[in-house]
Write a structure and sequence with these properties.
Chain lengths: 441, 112
């Protein structure tokens, strides 16, 4: 923090933001580890960042911003403890126990690299003793560094509701004493999928919002990718982490082509493949190889391989459908699910024809998990339409419209429905309705 | 930190997957010898239970029961003293009562 550093201050504006984004989660994790209290850690982490916002623009970003923030936050924490004796007594016990549990962490002062304790925080936030919603909210709050109102906005909930949820989750962590630790090698296979699930559910909410006016929430999708990158750095040997990152990159690479000029959904068949992000696809392809090498395949690795086959093809006709069907077979064996069976049926339709796909879809008609799942009704509509059974197709699209969540999806379905209805009445008077006005002939 | 493990057994016993007496004895021995044991009891059959309620006016009502209205009934408990929830969950998972349709609820004991 010398005067010389201060000279860099002119170009420092955006980099301060970048530093906070990178450092906040790490700082929080270290403080939680040290003081065993998520609330205290959050408060002093915020105070340290506020202090940095005052000092850094004038003095320049210090050479080791993480250590600067950590030292500042720890001083604030000690101040608080001195002021509050009962709190101090409780925390002193926690700290002693924490030190006993894992002694000899490298000194966190001075210029050296700070230990990255975010992995512990990932496992705490995704602990199975918390509800699935709480896990996602805590991960966004503590590791992605979103504020509570931002987390609320991500899930279209009132900020007060989200605040209550986060408070309750933190209370459970504190009072049931959910530990801050990385599960041992024997537990990791059981616990890691929970962490990956949290990240993937953030991504899927970003990729296909379940409700609301927007089809994609790019901020959430990108946040999920950022979290997966952190996790990959922390667990470089876990192939499913590579698989998850690959899957998200390979899907996200298409995001620009998924939305048309008027904000409408553009399906894979109709996407302008020139708008796919080649750099992201290449990174994803490299990670698929990592994910599928050196052991039995995992769920994310196989899904990433399917996404890679889509991304590699120049068009639907040149897509390697036999290979995709084969990968869905692997996926179904790993995790039998009606949604995977639905996707497999669509791939079979591409390989063997619409009739073959329809037979498989109709076998799934009784699945309770597909009731209300609009992609099922949409897929039936598409196949029936391709077979020229326009009236049945229109019924399926109407069903899908009842189930679809976002406006762009509904607009897309209305266009499909209109196309079916006019095909059905071909030669008769053309049908006019809301859907046919913005039709995509 | 102390945790109570509440052992719930299926109300209708399907003997196929029930843990044997020997398994229970082995678990009990392990809990006691590992040093985490604080207390624990196995409860007599639910048909022997009696409920007492006292009204606002101080009137005492004694009734037979309760009888199983849910799928599971409390069959016994342990109180153990372990460092954190993960360790408590490990002990709960090893309990024979967690298998064969039963479950073990883990609750921290409040500290004042």
């Amino acid at each position: 923090m010398t005067a010389a550093d201060g000279r860099n201050a002119a170009s420092v504006g955006p980099s301060i933001e970048a530093v906070f984004r990178e450092e906040r989660g790490r700082l929080l994790a270290s403080l939680v580890r040290r003081f065993g209290d998520l609330d205290l850690a959050e408060e002093v982490a915020s105070e340290a960042i506020e202090a940095a916002l005052v000092h850094w623009p004038a003095d320049g970003v210090p050479p080791n911003p993480g250590a600067w923030l950590m030292t500042t936050a720890r001083r604030r924490a000690v101040d608080r403890l001195r002021r509050d004796r009962t709190y101090a007594a409780r925390l002193a016990i926690l700290q002693v126990e924490a030190d006993r549990a894992a002694p000899a962490t490298p000194a966190d002062s001075g210029g050296g690299e700070l230990p990255d304790e975010r992995l512990q925080l990932f496992f705490t936030c995704a602990h199975p003793a918390l509800s699935a919603e709480d896990r996602v909210a805590l991960t966004l709050r503590c590791l992605a560094g979103l504020t509570t109102p931002e987390v609320a906005r991500a899930f279209l909930l009132p900020p007060a509701t989200m605040a209550k949820r986060i408070v309750r989750a933190k209370k459970k962590i504190r009072e049931a004493r959910i530990p801050f630790r990385v599960p041992g090698a024997d537990e990791l296979p059981g616990r890691l999928p929970g962490v990956l699930q949290v990240i993937y559910s953030i991504f899927t909410e970003g990729y296909a919002a379940s409700t609301g006016p927007d089809l994609q929430r790019l901020d959430l999708a990108e946040e999920a990718i950022r979290l997966a990158r952190i996790l990959r750095r922390l667990l470089p040997r876990e192939r499913e982490v590579a698989g998850l990152l690959a899957l998200m990159l390979l899907v996200h690479a298409r995001h620009a082509a998924r939305i048309g000029a008027d904000g409408e959904l553009v399906l894979l068949d109709d996407q302008d493949r020139a708008r796919w992000d080649r750099t992201m696809i290449e990174e994803g392809q490299g990670l698929v190889v990592v994910a599928l090498t050196g052991g039995p395949p995992g769920l994310y690795g196989v899904q990433a391989a399917i996404a890679a086959l889509h991304d590699e093809a120049a068009g639907l006709a040149t897509t390697d459908w036999p290979q995709i069907v084969a990968l869905y077979d692997v996926l179904l064996a790993l995790a039998p699910s009606p949604v995977i069976a639905l996707n497999r049926a669509v791939a079979v339709a591409m390989r063997d024809g619409a009739e073959a796909g329809l037979v498989l879809l109709d076998e799934l008609a009784g699945e309770p998990r597909l009731r209300g799942y609009h992609p099922y009704a949409t897929a039936r509509g598409d196949l029936l339409h391709r077979l020229g059974r326009h009236r049945a197709a229109a019924d399926a699209y109407r069903q899908a419209l009842d189930w679809a969540g976002t406006e762009p999806e509904r607009a897309h379905l209305r266009r499909r429905l209109a196309a079916c209805e006019s095909a059905d009445l071909a030669g008769h008077e053309p049908l006019r309705d809301e859907g046919s006005r913005d039709g995509d002939d | 930190m102390k945790y109570m493990l509440l052992i719930n057994s299926p109300a209708t016993e399907t003997d196929a997957e029930m843990a044997s007496f020997e398994e229970w004895m082995a678990y009990d021995k392990t809990v006691r010898e590992s040093g985490v044991y604080v207390s624990g009891e196995s409860l007599a059959d639910l048909t022997t239970a009696t409920t007492v309620q006292v009204s606002a006016s101080g009137e005492r009502t004694v009734t037979d029961g309760p009888f199983a209205e849910t799928r599971e009934v409390l069959g016994g408990f342990y109180v153990i003293d372990v460092p954190d929830l993960d360790v408590a969950l490990d002990w709960a998972a090893r309990c024979p009562g967690a298998r064969g349709g039963g479950s073990v609820v883990v609750r921290p004991v409040a500290e004042f």
